[in-house]
Design brief:
Length: 736
């Protein structure tokens, strides 16, 4: 096609007659008109194919968009508490490396947020694809389009616990519990289960997952105001009742589309129209997932809105299960990796990371709970780009999967994962990038932007009004709405939903579809795109840019108005007083109360570590020395852990990853409690053989120097350690 376009343009040596020059604008207009007419036919033919694809997808028993084959191991409908979820074992493709029997399994959970399952394995370069390329056995937790009548969010959590138990049982030789990835809405579901059943989890990655729903910054995060401006969750209850007890996921899809009207109303269809020759396959592939709407039970959606979207109860430990258990994310024992993007307007960094500020007073508080939290913020990926971008998969997800054992062994604290191109001379086996984990404080989280106390009080007022409106609806209107709602009416409302109707309207069942297909085939055979330098084509692009600018301006004005209205209503002291929020200063406080039992446990643990600060042998001494030297820069990259893994493999006394992790944490805490005494005690932990001590120090130097960091303070610490290790020519030192 490009060659044909080049042939249409005159070369520099072509001599044109005056008539040709005069008629060139007319020729350009004719070429553009023909090109536009052909593109119009092809555009509508793609719409026809999209409709056929939609009908075919909807007719399947278990529609999904997974690129990989798999086997259903557990059907959630067969469980004691049946749900529409299932556990699938993913078959590695032929070009994947052999699965390592000792590698921990990877379990990916897709979001049930309006669309069907499979986005985590949408293409070869995806979350699932990266796990398979790294040699991990991989499993997928997906769902059917229709919920089991009566299933609840707690039932889904119980089913996922059964799935994880099955995965663990299938891999008794694996080093570590499963690495679980929760995308978007699946992220909070995974963390809830991890808080209730921490023994089932290895490291957890939550990608684009909203956890602190009130968080955000003024002028940028308008979705957080929606609940308050709609009067709370009474509208959710009404929608579920009009749906005959079902909540149509298409409403959630419509919310996403409304966030970016320029893309929904113009850029997306225009992009197909303007580049229909090359975009058809990619467009149809994406639309197969985007148009695959699913349903939720009305009770499930009501729980989500009341407890999360409006109530914001997850990040403040105020969710209580039906059996009376409190869901407190501080109970999670596994490392938590939060991956988000500054370009995501659905789950901005404030909502992905704000739960850390909600739960913890400082980093010491995080360490006191034995938690390891890692975050990574992409510069510009959109919400869907976090899951579907091949570039993101090859960089971020590849690094997370390759370094999951490293993450599992990180000492408790708060870290940022910083991914850089691989330095010259570094081991090519590490991949194209190097990840380092650098210590951070809560001020680094606050730097992304956080709520003021006044903001929190306004959102608390919206949550309080939501409870009142929901109570009024359930008492006065709900019985009548349910009485008047018939199943045929509910089904008709779903079929006519604005997000579903376009797929239904244009397909092979539509009158004239056969003629459209025939004309489109003829157009493809005689396609004549106009030259890229056609001035009318340039004018078309300028018009498109103008449309995007106008729609974006309207969106910005709409969002500013929504924000102003929200704070005018709920920021009013009169409104807050009416809702009972001005009676106590702490009524909008967010951080959970201190647990005396936990405080007592921490004190006892510190006393025990102090008593045993000189306990241990050569292995503990080397580990403490490495941690002390690395502490000078408060960071370590994957080359350091790769060196540790090589040394572990050479150790004649085999040590499991869990045992190594526990030893590392103990040495870290002893340094944290009393660094000077802990370092001085290294001498008492060493054997009296000088050759062994010299070899041990060389090991320390190897590990510490693996990342090629030239830090003066690190060098000073190595000098101090060398004195301790070399002092054994005259016998071992005594502990202080």
């Amino acid at each position: 096609m490009l060659e044909r376009q080049k042939q249409e343009l005159p070369s520099a040596d072509t001599v044109q007659s005056p008539w040709q020059v005069a008629l060139r604008p007319l020729q350009d207009a004719v070429d553009f008109a023909l090109d536009g007419a052909q593109r119009t036919v092809l555009f509508w033919d793609v719409m026809r194919r999209r409709g056929n694809q939609y009908l075919d997808h909807a007719s399947q028993d278990a529609p999904h968009v997974l690129h990989f084959n798999g086997e259903v191991l557990i059907d959630g409908r067969m469980l004691d508490r049946p749900v529409n979820y299932g556990l699938v074992r993913i078959d590695p493709p032929a070009d994947a490396p052999p699965t390592d029997r000792r590698a921990r399994p990877v379990v990916v959970v897709d979001p049930r947020a309006g669309h069907g399952p499979g986005i985590a394995g949408f293409k070869a370069d995806s979350e699932i694809g990266m796990a398979l390329k790294a040699g991990h056995p991989c499993y997928f937790i997906g769902f059917l389009p229709d919920p089991v009548p009566g299933q609840t969010i707690e039932d889904v959590a119980a089913a996922e616990a059964v799935f994880l138990e099955a995965v663990i049982a299938r891999h008794p030789e694996a080093e570590g519990k499963p690495f679980v990835i929760g995308n978007c809405q699946a992220g909070w579901a995974v963390l809830m289960l991890a808080a209730l059943r921490p023994e089932l989890f290895g490291p957890i990655l939550v990608a684009g997952s909203p956890l602190s729903y009130w968080a955000g910054v003024h002028g940028r995060n308008p979705m957080r105001y929606s609940g308050g401006l709609l009067g709370g969750s009474a509208l959710t209850a009404l929608t579920g009742d009009l749906g005959g007890g079902l909540f149509d996921g298409a409403w959630l899809v419509q919310n996403f589309e409304n966030m970016n009207p320029a893309n929904t109303l113009w850029s997306k269809p225009y992009g197909l129209y303007a580049r229909v020759d090359s975009e058809e396959a990619r467009y149809l592939e994406f639309e197969r997932w985007w148009g695959g709407h699913v349903l939720l039970n009305a009770g499930e959606m009501q729980w989500i809105v009341d407890n999360l979207f409006v109530g914001n109860r997850l990040s403040t430990a105020r969710i209580v299960t039906g059996s009376g258990e409190m869901v407190d994310l501080r109970n999670i024992r596994s490392p938590i990796v939060c991956f988000c993007s500054d370009g995501d307007n659905i789950t901005p960094p404030q909502q992905a990371l704000g739960w850390i500020l909600d739960l913890y007073a400082d980093v010491r508080d995080i360490r006191a709970h034995g938690q390891t939290i890692v975050y990574s913020v992409h510069a510009n990926a959109g919400h869907l780009g976090i899951f579907v971008s091949a570039a993101v998969a090859r960089k971020e997800y590849a690094e997370f999967v390759q370094n999951i054992d490293f993450i599992d062994c990180l000492p408790p604290g708060l870290y940022e994962a910083v991914i850089r191109p691989r330095p010259d001379g570094a081991d090519p086996g590490l991949g194209d990038h190097i990840v380092s984990f650098e210590e951070r404080t809560l001020d680094d989280i606050r730097a992304f932007g956080c709520n003021s106390p006044e903001d929190d009080r306004a959102f608390a007022a919206a949550a309080r009004l939501s409870e009142i409106n929901l109570g009024l609806y359930r008492t006065m209107l709900q019985p009548w709405v349910r009485l008047m709602t018939l199943e045929p009416l509910a089904a008709a409302v779903r079929a006519l939903h604005p997000s579903r109707l376009p797929y239904e309207m244009v397909n092979d069942r539509t009158p004239g579809a056969a003629m459209l297909a025939s004309v489109a085939e003829t157009v493809r055979e005689h396609r004549r795109p106009c030259a890229s330098g056609n001035p009318f084509l340039a004018a078309q692009e300028r018009l498109s840019d103008l449309m995007e600018t106008l729609l974006n301006a309207w969106r910005d004005r709409r969002d500013r108005t929504a924000e102003e209205m929200f704070f005018a209503i709920y920021g009013s002291q009169a409104m807050q007083a009416v809702l009972g929020l001005c009676g106590a200063a702490e009524s909008a406080a967010r951080r959970p109360a201190i647990d005396p039992a936990h405080e007592r446990y921490v004190r006892e643990r510190i006393d025990d570590l102090r008593r045993r600060i000189a306990d241990g042998g050569l292995r503990e001494a080397v580990t403490r020395a490495v941690l002390y030297a690395l502490g000078a820069t408060a960071s370590a990259d994957e080359r350091t852990f790769a060196m540790i893994q090589r040394l572990r493999a050479q150790d004649p006394e085999e040590q499991t990853l869990d045992v190594f992790k526990e030893m590392l944490r103990e040495q870290f805490f002893q340094l944290l409690i009393d660094e000077e005494r802990a370092v001085d005690a290294i001498g008492a932990m060493l054997p009296s053989d000088p050759a062994t001590c010299n070899a041990a120090f060389e090991t320390v130097r190897q590990v510490v120097g693996a990342d090629e960091c030239d830090s003066p303070e690190r060098g000073q610490r190595l000098v101090r350690l060398e004195v301790l290790f070399r002092s054994h020519q005259n016998g071992p030192a005594k502990a202080a």
